[in-house]
């Protein structure tokens, strides 16, 4: 059989292929030739064939049948064979294939080979793809090579050791003795890889970190030599002596000095020296400066040094080179938390970067701008950010919009400004806002009572312009439904009131229902809004007609709503006004933001991805029927949203109490009052876990004699859990002179109505008294 | 740590691919395509850093690239590497290639893919930077090449009667536009 073609020939042939199919054909032919050559066990040409196979693998063709051949090449005595064999092993093999274990013996032999280049190849392969079994077997050899005086091998052994430690962390201690004099090497290659090894060990184990802290003076000395040594041609890169090593040492110093005062102290001088002496005209100088700045910010450096560092970053921001600006923005982002004021000084430059053409810089600048917003600069910053939102790429809009909302919420100077900002975001980037911003906005709007007329007017005008942005349309239709009467009566104080008739409003809402642009959810919103207007507008017939039409809609959601509303008109007309009353102000939940916990029936889950919250509006509709069964019952009410569930303004006086007042304090109550013994309950919410109610009982005695041996016991239904802490004392003094207090913790995961049975035993005037009582009059806020 | 080193031309054809983390062959080709897509969109006067694509994994990875004549050199790194340092490393690597191949151009990389791998092995090992001194690297590579050549010559003397000696193909003249010059 003719000799297999050389790699060069193959490449030349493949390059003449004009189409993908032609190339595939050539490669398949060659693969077949290679396969038959492998079968013939031809030693001479094996390396040539494997080289060709690797080339084809790079182009994307399967090459797994060459794996065993690589192993045969590794076992060969020739350097050429070994070289290509090891390369093939690194490219084609991985610990997932069982075949790789066969290499272990070969590598072991090669690690002890007489030629250093063979040893080097073995170390390289082990360091690239060694599996944990291989590493365990061969760690001893690597450790031996780490102590050799041959610098070529020593540096490779150091990196191989890093790989071994990554695969088998337990072996870290094994390499400790060998690291003793790694830093006294003169060869920069060995120094560099040793620093990498030390860095890896320090990052993995705090004990090692403490152990290596004593190396700080040595590292400082090496760094000093590098800076002061003057021109050294072999390590010079653009006029700076071995910048790679400098950067590595700075990084290690950062890790060593992180929370340690002494080490940081030792480093201060050298850091100041590097920061001031490094030349910044070329990229290399900037790389070192950048690393120095990061180190200064991370260790416990003195404040003068920190200011120097931030000023360097500020200078970077003004640099023409985009790369420098990018890294400056990245590091400012890291330091903005700790050195907020210093970074604020550069705010205007950062805001200018928003207008840069480069996408990466824009993104960094945007994140940093949001981090810098505070109460003082909110107006100015928001103007810039809104301008940015108008003109930025779609990939930024979602993040920018949610950032604007968060910032506006935290720092809004006035309600009107807040609403204006939100309107602006909705009109410019309406389709990119997150789904949960709609309920948040609605809650915000209800909270600003005096702005209702202004808000609804602006929203109405926005709707007239454009009905394609769903979140805007949803919020607008909800508001029109709620405050339509204000709209029609033209009561706006903030702005010029517009003249709108009821029919026009209904036109707009009906238009939403039929439009193709409206999503199903939006249609739901507008139907409910129309329904609400039946109590606010005078002309009810038109609304009745619309509602009855949708009773036969194909969309199940709309159909259900329409049918229920129809029922409201027909059978339950007496309840309609109360049901459709104005929504009360919704209570704000403790934290509003993307990482909020959503409670669903007491189970908590992160709400980031799940954005299928039904709008608050649907609650009254769906519960219209439920309530008719619920009157007087205690069924679990599913809590789906981030805000407190909106209980509908419903019929029945007792249910109105459920709306609760918004004060976060729960009123105390008297649980028991008989025979002179009065027991009051006061409530607190245990903050970390809102399901736990902390009740403090106060027992007071209005008789003339003390009640001794007072024991309070409580029992709760099975769905609760109770924990009674120890009482302040067992004696309730007479004549209300003092109280006995005891703390009860009740875990109420299902948010059911709290009920308790209490048993009291005490001795009064010598005779024991025992009493049982049920406590049912807990205020609703204590268990919601 | 360096996750991957990719060299491809202006049309996306790979000239050298080296992954320091395991990916299946399909994934590797997909990553090459995605990286090319991201990098080729970039203007010449924007910064050389890109957030990594979704395939190569996660938020910690960045693509640091340099464009030389017809080739893109892309290093995919995580946050433990200094970005500006890697830019310098790419420069050192290209200058080393220049020294080893004498005015290196794309054709050199095409026809000597294995040699480029060997040079890279002396610079980056296991995803970590091994040696940055150009002269060191070139010296070591040359010794190893000489070792190979001496073996081949020995073989030839042994087989001189059995197989014809293939003549070394001459390298075609390289037009200027293919010479690797930093942009």
UniProtKB/TrEMBL annotation, chain A:
<dbReference type="InterPro" id="IPR008152">
    <property type="entry name" value="Clathrin_a/b/g-adaptin_app_Ig"/>
</dbReference>
<protein>
    <recommendedName>
        <fullName>AP-1 complex subunit gamma</fullName>
    </recommendedName>
</protein>
<keyword id="KW-0333">Golgi apparatus</keyword>
<keyword id="KW-0968">Cytoplasmic vesicle</keyword>
<feature type="domain" description="GAE">
    <location>
        <begin position="664"/>
        <end position="779"/>
    </location>
</feature>
<dbReference type="Pfam" id="PF02883">
    <property type="entry name" value="Alpha_adaptinC2"/>
</dbReference>
<dbReference type="GO" id="GO:0030121">
    <property type="term" value="C:AP-1 adaptor complex"/>
</dbReference>
<dbReference type="Pfam" id="PF01602">
    <property type="entry name" value="Adaptin_N"/>
</dbReference>
<dbReference type="InterPro" id="IPR016024">
    <property type="entry name" value="ARM-type_fold"/>
</dbReference>
<keyword id="KW-0472">Membrane</keyword>
<keyword id="KW-0653">Protein transport</keyword>
<dbReference type="InterPro" id="IPR017107">
    <property type="entry name" value="AP1_complex_gsu"/>
</dbReference>
<dbReference type="InterPro" id="IPR011989">
    <property type="entry name" value="ARM-like"/>
</dbReference>
<keyword id="KW-0813">Transport</keyword>
<dbReference type="GO" id="GO:0006886">
    <property type="term" value="P:intracellular protein transport"/>
</dbReference>
<dbReference type="GO" id="GO:0016192">
    <property type="term" value="P:vesicle-mediated transport"/>
</dbReference>
<dbReference type="InterPro" id="IPR002553">
    <property type="entry name" value="Clathrin/coatomer_adapt-like_N"/>
</dbReference>
<comment type="similarity">
    <text>Belongs to the adaptor complexes large subunit family.</text>
</comment>
<dbReference type="InterPro" id="IPR008153">
    <property type="entry name" value="GAE_dom"/>
</dbReference>
<dbReference type="InterPro" id="IPR013041">
    <property type="entry name" value="Clathrin_app_Ig-like_sf"/>
</dbReference>
<dbReference type="InterPro" id="IPR050840">
    <property type="entry name" value="Adaptor_Complx_Large_Subunit"/>
</dbReference>
From TrEMBL, chain B:
<keyword id="KW-0813">Transport</keyword>
<dbReference type="GO" id="GO:0006896">
    <property type="term" value="P:Golgi to vacuole transport"/>
</dbReference>
<protein>
    <recommendedName>
        <fullName>AP complex subunit sigma</fullName>
    </recommendedName>
</protein>
<dbReference type="InterPro" id="IPR011012">
    <property type="entry name" value="Longin-like_dom_sf"/>
</dbReference>
<dbReference type="InterPro" id="IPR016635">
    <property type="entry name" value="AP_complex_ssu"/>
</dbReference>
<dbReference type="GO" id="GO:0005794">
    <property type="term" value="C:Golgi apparatus"/>
</dbReference>
<dbReference type="GO" id="GO:0030123">
    <property type="term" value="C:AP-3 adaptor complex"/>
</dbReference>
<comment type="similarity">
    <text>Belongs to the adaptor complexes small subunit family.</text>
</comment>
<keyword id="KW-0333">Golgi apparatus</keyword>
<keyword id="KW-0653">Protein transport</keyword>
<keyword id="KW-0968">Cytoplasmic vesicle</keyword>
<dbReference type="InterPro" id="IPR027155">
    <property type="entry name" value="APS3"/>
</dbReference>
<keyword id="KW-0472">Membrane</keyword>
<dbReference type="InterPro" id="IPR000804">
    <property type="entry name" value="Clathrin_sm-chain_CS"/>
</dbReference>
<dbReference type="GO" id="GO:0030659">
    <property type="term" value="C:cytoplasmic vesicle membrane"/>
</dbReference>
<dbReference type="InterPro" id="IPR022775">
    <property type="entry name" value="AP_mu_sigma_su"/>
</dbReference>
<dbReference type="Pfam" id="PF01217">
    <property type="entry name" value="Clat_adaptor_s"/>
</dbReference>
<feature type="domain" description="AP complex mu/sigma subunit">
    <location>
        <begin position="1"/>
        <end position="147"/>
    </location>
</feature>
<dbReference type="GO" id="GO:0006886">
    <property type="term" value="P:intracellular protein transport"/>
</dbReference>
<comment type="function">
    <text>Part of the AP-3 complex, an adaptor-related complex which is not clathrin-associated. The complex is associated with the Golgi region as well as more peripheral structures. It facilitates the budding of vesicles from the Golgi membrane and may be directly involved in trafficking to lysosomes. In concert with the BLOC-1 complex, AP-3 is required to target cargos into vesicles assembled at cell bodies for delivery into neurites and nerve terminals.</text>
</comment>
């Amino acid at each position: 059989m003719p000799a297999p073609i050389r790699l060069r020939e193959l490449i030349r042939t493949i390059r003449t292929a004009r189409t993908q199919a032609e190339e595939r054909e050539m490669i398949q032919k060659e693969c077949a030739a290679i396969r038959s050559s492998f079968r013939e066990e031809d030693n001479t040409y094996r390396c040539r064939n494997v080289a060709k196979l690797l080339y084809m693998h790079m182009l994307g063709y399967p090459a797994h049948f060459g794996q065993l051949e690589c192993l045969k090449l590794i076992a060969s005595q020739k350097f050429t064979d070994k070289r290509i064999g090891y390369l093939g092993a690194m490219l084609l093999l991985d610990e997932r294939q069982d075949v790789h274990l066969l290499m272990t013996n070969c590598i072991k032999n090669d690690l002890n080979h007489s030629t250093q280049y063979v040893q080097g190849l073995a170390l390289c392969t082990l360091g690239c793809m060694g599996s944990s079994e291989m590493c365990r077997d061969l760690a001893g050899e690597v450790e031996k090579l780490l102590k050799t005086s041959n610098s070529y091998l020593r540096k490779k052994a150091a990196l191989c050791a890093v790989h071994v430690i990554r695969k088998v962390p337990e072996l870290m201690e094994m390499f400790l003795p060998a690291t003793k004099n790694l830093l006294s090497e003169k060869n920069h290659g060995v120094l560099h890889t040793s620093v990498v090894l030390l860095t890896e060990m320090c990052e993995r184990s705090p004990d090692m970190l403490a152990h290596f802290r004593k190396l700080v003076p040595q590292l400082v000395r090496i760094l000093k030599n590098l800076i002061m040594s003057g021109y050294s041609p072999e390590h010079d890169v653009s006029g700076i002596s071995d910048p790679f090593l400098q950067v590595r040492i700075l990084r290690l110093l950062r890790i060593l000095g992180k929370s340690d005062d002494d080490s940081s102290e030792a480093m201060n001088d050298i850091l100041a020296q590097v920061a001031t002496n490094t030349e910044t005209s070329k990229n290399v100088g900037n790389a070192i400066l950048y690393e120095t700045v990061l180190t200064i910010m991370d260790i416990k450096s003195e404040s003068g040094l920190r200011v120097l560092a931030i000023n360097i970053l500020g200078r970077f921001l003004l640099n023409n080179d985009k790369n420098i600006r990018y890294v400056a923005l990245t590091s400012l982002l890291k330091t903005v938390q700790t050195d907020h004021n210093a970074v604020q000084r550069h705010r205007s430059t950062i805001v200018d970067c928003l207008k840069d053409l480069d996408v990466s810089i824009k993104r960094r600048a945007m994140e940093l701008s949001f981090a810098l917003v505070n109460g003082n600069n909110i107006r100015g910053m928001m103007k810039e950010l809104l301008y940015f939102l108008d003109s930025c790429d779609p990939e930024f809009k979602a993040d920018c919009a949610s950032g604007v909302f968060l910032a506006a919420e935290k720092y809004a100077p006035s309600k009107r400004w807040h609403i204006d900002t939100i309107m602006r975001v909705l009109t410019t980037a309406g389709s990119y806002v997150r789904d949960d911003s709609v309920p948040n906005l609605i809650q915000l709007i209800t909270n600003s009572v005096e702005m209702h007329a202004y808000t609804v007017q602006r929203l109405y005008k926005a709707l007239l312009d454009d009905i394609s942005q769903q979140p805007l349309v949803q919020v607008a239709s909800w508001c029109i439904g709620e405050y339509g009467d204000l709209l029609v009566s033209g009561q706006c104080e903030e702005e010029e009131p517009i003249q709108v008739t009821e029919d026009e409003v209904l036109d707009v809402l009906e238009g939403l229902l039929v439009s193709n642009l409206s999503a199903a959810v939006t249609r739901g919103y507008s139907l409910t809004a129309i329904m609400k207007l039946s109590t606010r507008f005078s002309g009810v017939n038109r609304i009745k007609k619309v509602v009855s039409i949708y009773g036969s809609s194909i969309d199940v959601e709309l159909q259900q709503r329409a049918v229920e509303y129809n029922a409201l008109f027909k059978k339950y007309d007496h309840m309609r006004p109360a049901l459709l009353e104005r929504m009360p102000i919704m209570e704000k939940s403790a934290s509003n933001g993307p990482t909020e916990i959503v409670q669903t029936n007491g189970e908590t889950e992160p709400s980031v991805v799940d954005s299928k919250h039904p709008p608050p509006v649907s609650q009254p509709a769906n519960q219209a029927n439920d309530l008719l069964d619920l009157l007087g019952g205690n069924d679990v009410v599913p809590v789906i949203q981030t805000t407190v569930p909106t209980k509908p303004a419903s019929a029945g006086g007792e249910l109105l109490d459920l709306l609760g007042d918004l004060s976060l304090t729960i009123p105390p109550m008297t649980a028991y009052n008989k025979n002179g013994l009065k027991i009051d309950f006061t409530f607190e919410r245990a903050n970390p876990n809102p399901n736990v109610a902390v009740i403090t009982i106060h027992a007071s005695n209005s008789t003339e004699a003390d009640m001794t041996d007072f024991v309070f016991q409580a029992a709760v239904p099975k769905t609760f859990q109770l924990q009674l802490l120890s009482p302040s004392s067992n004696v309730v003094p007479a004549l209300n002179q003092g109280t006995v207090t005891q703390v009860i913790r009740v875990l109420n995961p299902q948010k059911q109505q709290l009920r308790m049975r209490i048993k009291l035993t005490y001795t009064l005037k010598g005779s024991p008294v025992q009493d049982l009582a049920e406590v049912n009059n807990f205020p609703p806020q204590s268990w919601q | 740590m360096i996750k991957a080193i990719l060299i491809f031309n202006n049309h996306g054809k790979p000239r050298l691919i080296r992954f320091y983390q395991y990916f299946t062959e399909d994934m590797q080709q997909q990553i090459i395509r995605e990286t090319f897509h991201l990098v080729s969109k970039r203007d010449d006067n924007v910064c050389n850093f890109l957030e990594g694509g979704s395939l190569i994994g996660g938020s910690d990875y960045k693509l640091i690239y340099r464009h030389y004549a017809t080739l893109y050199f892309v290093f995919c790194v995580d946050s433990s590497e200094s970005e500006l340092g890697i830019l310098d490393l790419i420069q050192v690597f290209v200058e080393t290639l220049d020294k080893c191949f004498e005015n290196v151009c794309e054709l050199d990389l095409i026809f000597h893919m294995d040699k480029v791998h060997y040079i890279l092995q002396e610079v980056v090992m296991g995803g970590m930077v091994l040696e940055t001194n150009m002269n060191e690297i070139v010296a070591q590579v040359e010794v190893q090449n000489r070792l190979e050549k001496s073996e081949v010559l020995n073989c030839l003397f042994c087989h001189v009667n059995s197989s014809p000696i293939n003549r070394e193909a001459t390298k075609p003249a390289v037009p200027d536009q293919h010479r690797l010059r930093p942009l």
